[in-house]
Structures are given as structure tokens and as C-alpha cells.
Prior knowledge:
Helix content: 25-40%
Bound molecules: 4-amino-1,4-dioxobutan-2-aminium adenosine-5'-monophosphate, magnesium ion
Strand content: 15-25%
Structural class: alpha+beta
Number of strands: 16
Radius of gyration: 27 Å
Oligomer: single chain
Amino acid sequence: SQSVRELYRGQDSFIDSEVFVKGWIRTLRNSKSFGFIELNDGTFFKNIQIVFDEELGNFEKISKLSISSAIEVKGKLVATPGAKQPFEIKATDIAVAAESEGDFPLQKKRHSLEYLRTIAHLRPRSNTFSAVFRVRSLAAYAIHKFFQERDFIYVHTPVITGSDAEGAGEMFRVTTMDPINPPMADGKLDYSKDFFGKETNLTVSGQLEGETFAMAFKNIYTFGPTFRAENSNTTRHAAEFWMIEPEIAFADLEDDMELAEDMLKYIISYVLENAPEEMEFFNSFVDKGLLDRLNNIVSSDFERITYTKAVEILKEAKAEFEFPVEWGCDLQTEHERYLTEEVYKKPVFVTDYPKEIKAFYMKLNDDNKTVAAMDLLVPGIGEIIGGSQREVNLELLKERMKESGLDEKEYWWYLDLRKYGGADHAGFGLGFERAIMYLTGISNIRDVIPFPRTVKSAEF
Ligand code: 4AD
Ligand code: MG
């Protein structure tokens, strides 16, 4: 048999020959003596049209099939010049592989993304989600390709961990269903006697473990699930999301930004080239202007400004912000979007944030007030990447941990990295879902993850 992708990509080579395709009915209409089926076999965004008529022994049966029935079609591929699609199949034989019941929820009419979210097990069969999840798969591949071509080592960092990489305490705790030891008299659990012998949580970031590998392999990356128990019910926050975290040794913040910019441009180019039909669909139905914007991004430099400069711009801005801006405050989404959408109209790196609002591991700048951090902000979303050069001075690092309320004994292995050849290094984290939102124009994070885990949602 052939896949629909092969037929479309092989174009003329299959015309006038016998083909055999297997897929699901997306639409079916018929008259007394003939009918049309739009068939999708999952390998290609577009459907293929099947024409059938009374010559089929089972014409009546086929005519009555419900949407989403699975069928196997033999026939001749004929060119259809001038039609919407370049060819169709004149069926000589259609076998029913699996019938669908008549009440399949995805009938031809367009459904809202909100409704489709309630049927996450069926939504991959809709146009929008077929496009989203193919782009997601391609983007994941592009990321591996980008790093592997540059000789980065892929590290699998632990999902269950005893440390808090961001020092922000937004963690999901891990314990067994039935604690190995009963609660203590005060009702609390004694983690020292629990499964792992200490309190553990789901990882918020693979960075700290990634750094250990960077000190051995120089250039590494992680790509895996991360978890945050932030109670933020927004369109950009999920409790479970995927993160890509490269870590590079003998490198500073400049190198870090260069890597981030190259990587993002590479992913965009790869997806534009390898999913033209899907990207065209997003451009027409989700976000007009998406293709122009992405093409511009690939061909121009990202902006780079310091946090201090960003605050100056925001203070002078004519816009009304819900949260007023002062030096020292964290930038809110409204500020991030103002900078990228109103001021620069392109991706912007904001660097050198006040140390108080950033994680303990970031390198302290000479001014003793700011750290060598960078956030990449993009139009439509805000922060998509967060990164920094790392503090490699052991004493300064210990001090920063103390300020952040972290127990240095718990991080003894992390401090060891500074003792034994702790070369300058830097890294960043790209939120994979935010990258997919950026690539597709889809505005809610719930619609770029196969099975979204957000506050108060865990159907699966
Ligand atoms: O800025 P964050 O918290 O940085 C880190 O975790 C560092 N350890 C990265 C590093 O330097 N290796 O997170 C990185 C990115 C954010 O820019 C954002 O895109 C994404 O991860 N992210 C989320 N995406 C979806 N839902 C959430 N709750 C997210 N939190 C962060
Ligand atoms: Mg961040």
C-alpha cells in the first residue's frame, strides 16, 4: 500500500497507476449512483479524495459509512487538473476495516478549540490538531538535529530529584501511595525513612544535573518533561511541560545568546521547510501574518537590551500597565509584550537582571547588583527562553545560596563542580510548548500539548 504522503510527495509518478491506501473517512457525500470520500491516513495533512460508484459490489454499505470509519481503498490515481487537489482515486474496491458509530463528535463543522480540549482523545483527528502535533514532532526532531550536528551530548536528567533547581519551591512532591513508614506523631511524614531516604520532588529543570555533564562533555543538552506547581492559570503556564536545556562550557552570556538565537532560527527554518501545508493552514486559519513574521525572524538579528534599559523604556511608555514598573521589579507579561510588540517588533533578549529576582546560580556582575542573565522575549507570548552565565566562584555561589535560603549541604555535589575545574559556563531553557505556540500562532498552551496538565485539569 501507499501512504497519502507518498502520493502527494511523489506527485506525477503515481498518476494513472493502481494505488492502495488505508485511512479514516473525514467526509462522505453520495448520490444514488456515486459518492465522494475525503480520506485521511494520518501521514499527510491533506485528505485524498476517493470517487466511488455503483460498480462497487458494496456501494450501498460504503455510502452509509459514518465519519471516522476506517477503510482500505484500491483504485487508480487520476489527475484532476484545475481542481482543489491535484488528483483523486477512482476506487475499484473499498474494504471496511473498522466502522465508526454514527455519533462521532467531530463532524464536518468547525469546532472551537475549547470544545476540542474536552475531547483530547479525539482531537488529534481534527485539522488543527493534526497540524499542531505534526509541527510539534518536527520541531522536536529539529532540536535534536541542531544540537547533534554541533556535537552536543544529549543527557537524560532525572525526573525524580532531591534538589530544587530553581530554588523557587514550586515543586510537586513525590511519595509512595502508602508511606513506607507511618506518619509521625504530629501527622507529618518522616522523609528520612521514606522511599528515597529523603524528600523528593518532580524536577523543575534539569539544569543543575546538566551542568555536571557540561563539566565533562563541554557541550550538552537535555530535552525532557519538567513540572511546576505554580498556581498560575494562564494561557502560557502548564504544570507539566517540556524543556530543552543546553549547557556550554568555556562560554559566557554572549555565547549563550548566540546559541539561543541560532537554535530558534534553525527550528523555525526546519519546520517551514518540512511542514509547508501545516504552516500554510496556520497562516490562513489561526494567525494571519504568521509566515511573514517567521520568515522575518529567520533573516534578521534579535534585539539585545539590558534590564535597566528595558525599565527606562517601560517607564516612559505611553501604555497603561496594570503593574507599574520600577527598577528591581520582575517584568510582567504585559511589559514583555510591550517591548516586543510595540517597541522592537521582533524577538528581544533582555539581559542583566537584578540578582534579587533571579535564581541563585546566576553569575554576579561586577556591579554587585545584577546577574549575567538573559530572557528571550517574543511577540505574542513574552518569555520563551530563560538563561544565564553560571556563578563559578565558590564563595560567591555559597553566599547567593544562603541569600536564597538554600542549604549548601544539600547541594554539595553542585558545589563540587566549582572546586574541580569549574570553567566558565552558561546555558538556557527553552519552553518547548511556548516554542510551538510561537511556531503555530496557537494562543493557548493547552492546545499545543497532547494531554495538557494545567491547574485543575487532568483528564488523562
Ligand atoms: O526561566 P526558567 O524557569 O529557567 C530555568 O528553568 C533554567 N533552569 C533554564 C536554564 O538556564 N537551563 O524556564 C525556562 C523556560 C521559560 O522561559 C519558559 O519558556 C518555560 O521554560 N517555562 C514554562 N512553560 C510552560 N509552563 C510553565 N509553567 C513554564 N515555566 C517555565
Ligand atoms: Mg524565567
